[in-house]
Design a protein that fits this description.
Elements lengths: L14 H14 L12 H8 L3 H13 L3 E4 L3 E4 L2 H11 L10 E2 L9 H17 L3 H4 L8 H15 L8 E4 L2 H12 L5 E5 L4 H10 L2 E5 L1 E2 L2 E2 L1 H11 L3 E4 L13 H14 L2 E5 L13 H4 L4 E6 L11 E4 L5 H12 L4 H13 L1 H24 L4 E2 L6 E5 L6 H10 L2 E2 L1 E2 L13 E5 L6 H16 L11
Parallel strand pairs: 3-15, 5-6, 5-9, 9-10, 10-11
Antiparallel strand pairs: 1-2, 4-12, 7-8, 11-12, 13-14, 14-17, 16-17
Helix pairs in contact: 1-3, 2-3, 7-14, 8-9, 8-13, 10-11, 15-17
Length: 468
């Protein structure tokens, strides 16, 4: 195609940067839309009167900025807005602002000062008593035996997971565990079922590993068993990935009866289950994982990240015995073995009761914030759990989620739409996800919720874009 960047070009700085900035401005103005294929390097070079090397550097810079994506054999394409934001997020923190946004967008546990003190005390104790093998070990690949033994006991007694020591792999967080589980039984091109709205990390994994992901209808308890049965019969999936406890972003949590029904469908079809149970400790004891019902078909993944401190990337993957010889080589290929020092801290906190104490405190803190949200948001309906990280808010009137997100940013707020969690390319629900844990200061969180309520009380402003 032919594009005209001349209205957006400036003389400031190197030419390649000027071209990259011109692309950014053309996208912002709507001149270039997501999915547009950019001209070949030589064609744009001739149009702008620059060298091919300059255009190549400009496209590379635009890709670093998250604006475009280069596809081998296909050319360079304009990214969707959410892809650009995701790229920026992955590159690191945004530049410091004089008045940083109130963050209602990140799935983050509440991390009060007491957590920092407990962390420092634990490090001091490890300095005195940690096993020497923590810094000398490079095997077993599954993790140090004493760390797996402690985790096995905890997983079995607290979560109800049939996690024998020999079936347990320590991994660097739940995302790593999910990747190991999926890659064990799913090949490039295979089809995997999940909830119609699911964690964006799973969607990213499908793109990375090259498997097809298809969504199944959900309700306020998560995936609907009858819809799952139909999808299994129709699509013959290789695996099903489910989050039965506090599904991100809706917070849906399966009752025991729903779990029984879902497990019956999976067992009847003989399909692999990959269970993301990362939010298990945000619920009081009593919910039994799906994997406990399907020990021969189920991979169970959880971690301590959502209930202790977010930097404690201690993940636990329970693998069906028949698949261990496939999973362990993938563990070795991706990280050799999980970081022993991280799991020595997790081992200490599991042994002295800190994990349970921190989980109970997290549930209490999130409960207080949920009640604060109820007061601040007033008449605006939302779905949540008493100890959930999020609110799932229905938008009023004529608001569209993307418009509200933009106006919220102008009001100093960061929120999340449904788009990153959508498996299928369908019209997004008129909802936003609001997270309650990232802001450590409750007063600042309350101010953010009050600003959001003010926006929701108003009608969206008229469209300013002129269409010819």
């Amino acid at each position: 195609m032919t594009i005209d960047l001349t209205p957006y070009l400036t003389d400031a700085g190197p030419k390649y940067l000027a071209i990259a900035r011109a692309l950014s401005e053309a996208i912002r103005q709507g001149e270039l839309t997501p999915g547009t294929r950019l001209p070949p390097h030589r064609q744009l070079a001739e149009t702008l009167g620059v060298s091919v090397q300059t255009v190549s550097r400009a496209y590379a810079q635009a890709e670093k900025m998250g604006l475009v994506q280069a596809r081998i054999g296909s050319g360079t394409w304009i990214n969707a807005l959410d892809d650009a934001k995701e790229s920026a997020y992955l590159r690191g923190h945004e530049p410091r602002q004089e008045h940083p946004l109130i963050d209602l967008s990140i799935a983050h546990p509440v991390c009060p000062p007491g957590h920092h003190l407990r962390f420092r005390q634990a490090l001091a104790e490890l300095a005195e008593h940690a096993s020497p093998e923590v810094i000398t070990a490079n095997r077993p690949i599954a993790g140090l035996l004493h760390q797996r033994e402690r985790a096995s006991t905890w997983l079995t007694t607290r979560l109800g997971v049939p996690a024998e020591v020999d079936d347990l792999i320590l991994c660097n967080g739940a995302a790593h565990g999910l990747m190991l589980a999926i890659s064990t039984v799913v090949q490039h091109g295979d089809l995997v079922l999940t909830e119609a709205l699911t964690d964006h990390g799973l969607i990213a994994l499908s793109r990375t590993l090259g498997f097809q992901l298809r969504g199944v209808t959900i309700d306020d308890e998560g995936v609907v068993p009858e819809a799952l049965d139909v999808a299994c019969r129709r699509f013959k999936p290789r695996a099903v990935c489910l989050t039965p406890t506090q599904l991100n972003p809706t917070g849906a949590t399966m009752s025991e009866a729903r779990r029984d029904a879902v497990a019956e469908v999976l067992e009847r079809h003989g399909v692999w289950l990959i269970e993301d149970d990362v939010h298990a400790l945000l619920e009081a004891p009593g919910l039994t994982p799906l994997t406990a019902r399907l020990p021969q078909l189920g991979f169970h993944v959880t971690s301590l990240t959502k209930v202790t401190v977010p930097g404690l990337r201690a993940g636990y993957l329970t693998v069906p015995r028949s698949q261990l010889h496939h999973t362990l080589p993938r563990m070795r290929a991706t990280t050799w073995m999980a970081t022993p020092l991280v799991f020595e801290l997790a081992h200490l906190w599991l042994a002295d009761g800190s994990v349970e104490a921190l989980a109970a405190e997290q549930r209490e803190l999130l409960g207080e914030r949920q009640r604060l949200a109820t007061r601040r948001l007033g008449r605006h309906p939302f779905v949540s759990r008493p100890s959930s990280l999020h609110l799932w808010i229905t938008l009023p009137g004529a608001w569209r989620a993307e418009e509200l997100q933009q106006h919220a940013e102008q009001e100093g707020l960061a929120i999340t739409t449904a788009v990153p969690f959508m498996v299928e390319q369908t019209p997004p629900p008129r909802r936003i996800r609001v997270s309650l844990g990232a802001e450590p200061d409750t007063a600042r969180l309350g101010e953010g919720l009050a600003r959001l309520a003010g926006l929701l009380d108003e009608a969206p402003p008229p469209m300013m874009q002129i269409v010819y």
